[in-house]
């Protein structure tokens, strides 16, 4: 890497590498090369500042509990260890689970048990009143765990009226044909007061 | 002060007793050393201390003409940063002595950190693929366990790295940044 102290850099460090640098994910030799470049380059230092800001905002959003996303058991354990209130519901294929959220819950996760061995691409479909209202496509799964852990938006769930959601784990082959891995019914009862007449789109 | 002077030129002028060159060199180096400190010491206040300590050592070396190859300034600064970080981790005693002696004259003036719009960022994260979103959330939820958490999703290290890099570039672009 060549450096330019003022103005543009002739060989700027890739932003993804800067993020890995900030997250301490680079091998030590690469990290030292980045250190040396940054100490001589204002342009890349500015880019690193932007990277740090992005990293801090990403941490904030990741901890918000608002993103519907597939998470890991380690994620749930870390959240609990950090003192966060995690409401968990576990279901095996074909099971029906009554559920709710309270005002002091920080996260809402569903643990969906399934035999994931041999499954290639796996989708998680969300169905309400007979129609699909959302789908997480090609989700990451670890077949050894025998489960998929899905975080639901805590803010959305706190505001939701009584409702029932069918979650389906689907194995999707290259031709697009789907095979059901498991179907799970969650019956949500609202326990936090809210405006009447709130309906799903 | 000629702000376009090269750092090599400034280094030579400091050795000749030019205090304006010394001030300009410090002004340029403070933000960079501060970033090094944030990365390797983990806090802005510790980075402030690092800036002061490194600049003290640098100025002492330059005034005494101990930096013989003026083109090696950056290497000298990096070496001093590394040793000082080790020192800071080992003991705070000498640091306190130096700060009491010179601290008031070397208050770091670092550029403000940019701020991101978390709402816009959340929308940008929603636009990622579900696999990218999982890797991003697990990576940034708890930075210390980035690799462990992502691997628990059944992905390889290499796969996680590729997904993370693709997601970071997409998020930068979505937030209006350059590549």
Key structural traits:
heterodimer, A: 201 residues, alpha+beta, 2 domains, 5-stranded mixed β-sheet, 4-stranded mixed β-sheet, 9 strands, disordered N terminus, B: 179 residues, Rna Polymerase Sigma Factor, Chain: A, Arc Repressor Mutant, subunit A, 70% helix
Could you characterize the architecture of this molecule?
The complex is a heterodimer of chains A (201) and B (179). By secondary structure, chain A is of the alpha+beta class. Chain A is 28% helix and 30% strand. In chain A, the strands form 2 sheets. Chain A has a 5-stranded mixed β-sheet, with no helix packed on it. In chain A, strands 1-7-4-2 form a 4-stranded mixed β-sheet. In chain B, 70% of the residues lie in helices and 0% in strands. Chain B has 2 domains: 99 residues, Rna Polymerase Sigma Factor, Chain: A (Orthogonal Bundle); 57 residues, Arc Repressor Mutant, subunit A (Orthogonal Bundle). Chain B contains 9 helices and no strands. The model of chain B has no long low-confidence stretch (mean pLDDT 83). In chain B, helix 2 crosses helix 4. Classes of the chains: A alpha+beta (201), B mainly alpha (179). At the A-B interface, helix 1, helix 2, helix 3, strand 1 and helix 4 of A face helix 2, helix 4, helix 6, helix 7 and helix 8 of B.
Instruction: Tell me the distance between the termini of chain B.
Output: 33 Å
Helix-residue proportion of chain A: 25-40%
- As residue ranges, the low-confidence spans of chain B are none
List the uncertain runs of chain A: 1-5
DSSP strand count of chain B? 0
| Integer count of domains of chain A | 2
Most extensive interface, chain pair and sizes: A-B, 60 and 65 residues
Radius of gyration of chain B: 21 Å
Calculate the mean pLDDT score of chain A and round it: 90
Q: Give me the side-by-side strand order of the main sheet of chain A.
A: 3-9-8-5-6
Question: How many domains comprise the coordinates of chain B?
Answer: 2
Helix content of chain B: 55-70%
Overall SS class of chain B: mainly alpha
Q: Strand percentage of chain A, roughly?
A: 25-35%
Described by strand count, sense and barrel closure, the largest sheet of chain A is:
5 strands, mixed
Task: Report the CATH C-level class of the largest domain in chain A.
Answer: Mainly Beta
Could you say what the CATH architecture of the largest domain in chain B is?
Orthogonal Bundle
Judged by helices, strands and strand pairing, the structural class of chain A is alpha+beta
- What's the CATH C level of the largest domain in chain B? Mainly Alpha
Please work out how many helical segments of chain B DSSP would assign: 9
The arrangement of helices and strands of chain A along the chain is HHHEHEEEEEEHEE
């Amino acid at each position: 890497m060549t450096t330019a102290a003022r103005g543009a850099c002739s060989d700027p460090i890739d932003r993804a590498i800067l993020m890995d640098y900030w997250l301490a994910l680079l091998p030590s030799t690469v990290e030292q090369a980045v250190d040396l470049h940054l100490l001589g380059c204002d342009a890349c230092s500015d880019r690193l500042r932007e990277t740090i800001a992005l990293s801090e905002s990403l941490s904030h959003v990741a901890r918000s509990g608002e993103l519907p996303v597939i998470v890991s058991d380690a994620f749930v354990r870390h959240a609990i260890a950090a003192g966060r209130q995690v409401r968990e519901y576990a279901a095996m294929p074909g099971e029906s689970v009554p559920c709710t959220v309270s005002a002091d819950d920080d996260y809402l996760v569903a643990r969906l048990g399934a035999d994931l061995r041999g499954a290639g691409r796996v989708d998680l479909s969300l169905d309400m009143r007979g129609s699909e209202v959302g789908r997480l496509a090609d989700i990451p799964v670890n077949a050894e765990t025998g489960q998929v852990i899905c975080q639901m938006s805590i803010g959305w769930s706190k505001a939701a009226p009584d409702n029932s959601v069918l979650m389906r784990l689907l194995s999707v082959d290259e031709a697009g044909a789907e095979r059901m891995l498991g179907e799970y019914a969650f019956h949500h009862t609202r326990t936090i007061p809210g405006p009447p007449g709130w309906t799903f789109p | 002060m000629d702000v376009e002077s090269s750092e090599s030129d400034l280094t030579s002028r400091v050795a000749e007793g030019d205090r304006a060159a010394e001030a300009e060199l410090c002004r340029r180096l403070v933000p960079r050393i501060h970033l090094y400190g944030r990365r390797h010491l983990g806090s802005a206040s510790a980075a402030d201390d690092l800036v002061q300590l490194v600049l003290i050592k640098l100025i002492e070396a330059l005034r005494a003409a101990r930096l013989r190859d003026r083109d090696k300034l950056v290497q000298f600064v990096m070496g001093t940063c590394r040793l000082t970080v080790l020192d800071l981790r080992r003991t705070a005693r000498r640091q306190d002595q130096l700060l009491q002696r010179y601290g008031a004259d070397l208050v770091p003036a670092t550029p403000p950190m940019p701020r991101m719009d978390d709402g816009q960022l959340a929308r940008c994260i929603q636009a990622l693929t579900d696999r990218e979103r999982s890797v991003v959330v697990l990576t940034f939820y708890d930075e210390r366990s980035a690799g462990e958490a992502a691997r628990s999703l059944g992905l390889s290290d290499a796969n996680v790295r590729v997904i993370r890099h693709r997601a970071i570039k997409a998020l930068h672009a979505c937030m209006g940044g350059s590549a």
